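Write out the 3D structure for:
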Amino acid sequence: MSVRERHREDLRGLLGDPAAVRAHLAAGSGMPGPRANLELLGAFADVAPADLVLALADDADEYLRCCGTDGVGRLVLDAPTAGREPLTALLRARAADGSWRVRESAAMALQRIGDAEPGTLRALVADWVADPDPLVRRAAVAGVCEPRLLRDPATAAAALDACAAATASIAALPAGDRRDPGVRTLRQALGYAWSVAVAGDPTAGLPRFAALRASDDPDVARVVRENEKKTRLRRLLDPIGRPGP
């Protein structure tokens, strides 16, 4: 039995008592500390009933809110297509949460959706990457730029499109607006996401990344430099040559 399976079994025995579930999650959270317990978080999202998922997605406690946020991804999949909008709106709100851990859980929820319904993920990413909030754009990029999802050619293409749109959104900003913390967070995500997206589809991705390398925009240049440090991209760029230091 895997760690996550064991957590699921433990949680199933507590689901009749929401207070006991909260206490169990808090005790096993790994917080405060540098690493939250992602196996426990994911196990909760796998098995918790909808009412508890929604309650925790709005909880004041950071870890509990993370658990609920990832669980909303499962609720999206469980819901009929016509009833998903309130759930995806909640995920979008958590993508702009004040906690970076909760924002990461929103990206994880997108990946959960993408595992089961790649087309639904692509639609959400296309919508979110046009959002005025850079943190929502960041969640779109982080959600789709996951190697396991990019085995699907359509999703690999969507990842490149999302990276391109998010990068262009920064390049279009005046210099003063780029100091916004949300914009910086988006730029940091793009500093690795391009490497994932290009590795997912090198034939389409390398020419698009080459176009970025020709940009004289300072933030685009920073995104390029950060991605060129990633081994997955260096392996693809080395045969065609990279610019010198």
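The radius of gyration is 19 Å.
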